Amino acid sequence: MKVMVIGSGLMGPAAAYNALLDPEVEQVTLADMRVDQLERAQAKLARIADISKLCIRQVDLNDRRAAAAAIAAADVVVAALPNRVIPLGLEAAAVARRPWVDLSRPTRDEIERLGAMMAQAGVPVVWGCGLEPGLTEIMARYLAEKLDQ
Asked: Over pLDDT 90: what percentage of the chain?
């Protein structure tokens, strides 16, 4: 499996690290529009993991055609993007017809439209798989189940 992680800030390198450790993943592409940030992330990952499966790639989501072409080279996309940028990535993923796993989620006013767009393209999308949203909801449910009322 080929995984593309878009966003090389705080969460993207962590997602790339997890993918690098998975024996079923043959390639991890860490993508961002900022080359300097990609290089810092690559250096950080090199200190803690075998990066022989890692590629870094500059991708500007504002260029939908180029972004869709880059995404099409992967089997799945893991997004670690700011909320305001998520729609650009989802539009490119819809064109490329690649599944999207988001560590965050789009803004409330965008989520319905974007979800419908992905459904129409036949592309699965999973929102909120990061720390917040994501882990906090899992922990809240766990704690709620421990209550007797």
From this structure: 77
Positive or negative, the CA dihedral 130, 133, 134, 139 is: positive
Q: How many CB atoms lie within 10 A of CB 30?
A: 30
CA distance 105 to 133: 8
Which helix (DSSP H) or strand (DSSP E) does residue 28 occupy? strand 27-32
Q: Are 98 and 79 in contact (CB under 8 A)?
A: no
pLDDT tens for 22-46 read 999 999 999 999 999 999 999 999 9
pTM above 0.85, yes or no: yes
The span from the CA of 71 to the CA of 92, in Å, is: 7
Tokens of 134: 């994501």
CB 103 within 8 A of CB 28: no
Count CB atoms within 10 A of the CB of residue 109. Answer: 7
Partnered with residue 28 across adjacent β-strands are 3, 54
Instruction: For residues 24 and 134, give the distance between their C-alpha atoms in angstroms, rounded to a whole number.
Output: 24
pLDDT tens readout for residues 12-21 = 999 999 999 9
Q: Sheet harboring 125-126: ordered strands across?
A: 54-58, 27-32, 2-6, 76-79, 100-102, 125-126
